[in-house]
Amino acid sequence: MLDPMGSGQVRLSDVAAVAGVSLSTASKALSGSTRISLATRERVRAAATRLDFRPDALAQSFASGRSRTIGVLTHRATNTFSQPVLIGAVLLLGEQDQATLVHDGDVAVHRRLGQSVRELQARRIDGLLVIGDGHEQVTASVTHHFAVPVSYAFTASDAEEDVVFLPDNEAAGRIAAEHLLSRGRRRIAHLTGPRQSLAVQLRETGFREALGSAGVHPVGPVLRSHWGRPWGAEAMTRLLDSGTDVDAVFCGNDHIALGALDVCTRRGISVPDDIALIGVDNWEGVVVDQNIRQLTTVDLELMALGRRAAASLLGERPTPGQHRSPPTLVQGPST
Amino acid sequence: MLDPMGSGQVRLSDVAAVAGVSLSTASKALSGSTRISLATRERVRAAATRLDFRPDALAQSFASGRSRTIGVLTHRATNTFSQPVLIGAVLLLGEQDQATLVHDGDVAVHRRLGQSVRELQARRIDGLLVIGDGHEQVTASVTHHFAVPVSYAFTASDAEEDVVFLPDNEAAGRIAAEHLLSRGRRRIAHLTGPRQSLAVQLRETGFREALGSAGVHPVGPVLRSHWGRPWGAEAMTRLLDSGTDVDAVFCGNDHIALGALDVCTRRGISVPDDIALIGVDNWEGVVVDQNIRQLTTVDLELMALGRRAAASLLGERPTPGQHRSPPTLVQGPST
DNA sequence: CTGAAAGCGCTTACAG
DNA sequence: CTGAAAGCGCTTACAG
């Protein structure tokens, strides 16, 4: 019968007594680190199993100095795109039996940030993950405030030697272009978000690069404005009305792609037979009903980004600098 | 100059020495609990401030038995609707300086669940939050496995005395109906999701109740099928083609409402002048670009639900039983 | 109101 | 390879 409340009455000293060894030997046998005779190790393990010994995490932490807690500093965690990064981090850490202590706020506001830093230090966190709200801004590095590993996700840091994880928007553009090319499309247009957005620029760069490698040029002018569905519709309308000969459109995100799709549907243009559409974000992937997918899209894999960034604090440290997570193609009916 | 690494070299004994009191007196003075002369308390506090004393959380936890960590057991945390609940919980806990240890899995799979329970016990968590994936299923209670408070969010528990937090789908239906009534609508139809869904049933119940209180009956048959936009469009088409005289539609969720809106737009029906539309979920609230809102909707406030449920583990315990979080009306252009 | 002492349950040099 | 001992830095009865 197992201890129903988990009150953990069985201590290491009990295990040691049963196994007929000293406390320190029992500790070493279970931690597995130091040189211990195989026989002793087995005897201690057997005793531990028989007594259902579970080490008290509080005592272990106090003695070892490791809290098994990772601090997370988020910049407005409720942002649509920050959420999957945070969820990914929290889930990976949980799998590794690491708790997460989240301080949410405005990473740019120094007074509150300083407070968070102090509190996280006092909690003796084993590592810190800074999560930004995209790649548009550069976060002021806090690495020097901590003696433990610090990683940055979804934001750049202003210190070159920091370990940074970012989505790969250039690759997203490349993947979209290569997919359309592989479908035999050659007259490809681009409708996207605001010109000043870094994501817009990087996706377009990757897109042009991949087309260029195939000796193809985008058709029509690149139309840039908003991220929303209405703009997608308007841009598609302009594109069609301009008389441009087009057989595919790379849309800067899924909202724009859905707006473009609306226009095609309204005008009786068959997607993908007449025009193929591809977006970015896998927005429909978070919708309840998976069988209503309308789009092919490039998923930036933000949850995986959060997982990778969190994992970087636990195992061996990755090399300093920016690490880009590979986006994935999600095939839908629109290509 | 503050300790840049936060290595916490200042110990309570240092504070006690500077203040000229014993270690135990210093401890009591700072914890604020026991009877201590005001003068002593102030002296100790001043010393602590001057030395920038920050108690070592690991030592505090070990000595006090409180880990300042809350366990969270999720049932597929990556579900669209579980995510805001988890985010809300994690953020509230962080604000209260509580770490979160998340074990994600299938709460119905007992072998893995048992493993999670054992690990959470060993971690000496101060409380446990069980997060389900909606209200459709009843979770087997795990409360009896823990000596610390356990709360349930976004799922019912099979033990009556458990503390459970659920969204209020009936209230959502009522709020939608009352809003349409307040807009002077009287010929109100209902298009919704699958008949077997509890959310469908509860929202409809609340809807009918509110209409009934105003002496109004729904017009046309209630059309129930899928949660997606295509079904919304199909249902709206059927409704209009049936010749039903209608001036408002309560849609079971926002996808259905958007499908209905598509049909109205296509047919030149003015929303809200001819027909008002209202949905549920505030789906557009998570979209990037807030100025593209098309719908009035009822927000179930799932993040607030997560926050409340998490808070219930920290302060005084709420009464056993089900606690329903109030949904809120989000006004948009469609009513 | 204050202080000396025990104790929380492990880990980790150190000596053997 | 094994064990005795110190120590991690607090909190908390207990005695004064």
Your description of this structure?
The first copy, chain A, has 335 residues and is of the alpha/beta class. Chain A folds into three domains: 12-55, no CATH class; 69-167 and 303-326, 3-Layer(aba) Sandwich (Rossmann fold); 169-299, Response regulator (Rossmann fold), CATH 3.40.50.2300. Chain A has eleven helices and 14 strands. Chain A has helices at residues 12-19, 23-31, 38-51, 57-64, 82-95, 110-122, 169-182, 198-213, 229-241, 254-267, 302-311, and strands at residues 69-75, 99-105, 127-131, 138-139, 150-153, 156-157, 163-167, 188-192, 223-224, 248-251, 276-280, 296-299, 321-325, 328-330. The first copy, chain A, has a six-stranded parallel sheet with strand order 2-1-3-5-7-13, with helices on both faces. Chain A has a six-stranded mixed sheet with strand order 9-8-10-11-12-14, with helices on both faces. Chain A has a two-stranded parallel sheet with strand order 4-6. In chain A, helix 7 packs parallel to helix 8 (198-213). The first copy, chain A, is elongated. The N and C termini of chain A lie far apart (59 Å). Residues 1-6 of chain A have low confidence and may be disordered. Chains A, B: InterPro entries: HTH_LacI, LacI/GalR-like_sensor, Lambda_DNA-bd_dom_sf, Peripla_BP_I. Chains A, B: This is Transcriptional regulator, LacI family. Chains A, B: Keywords: DNA-binding, Transcription, Transcription regulation.
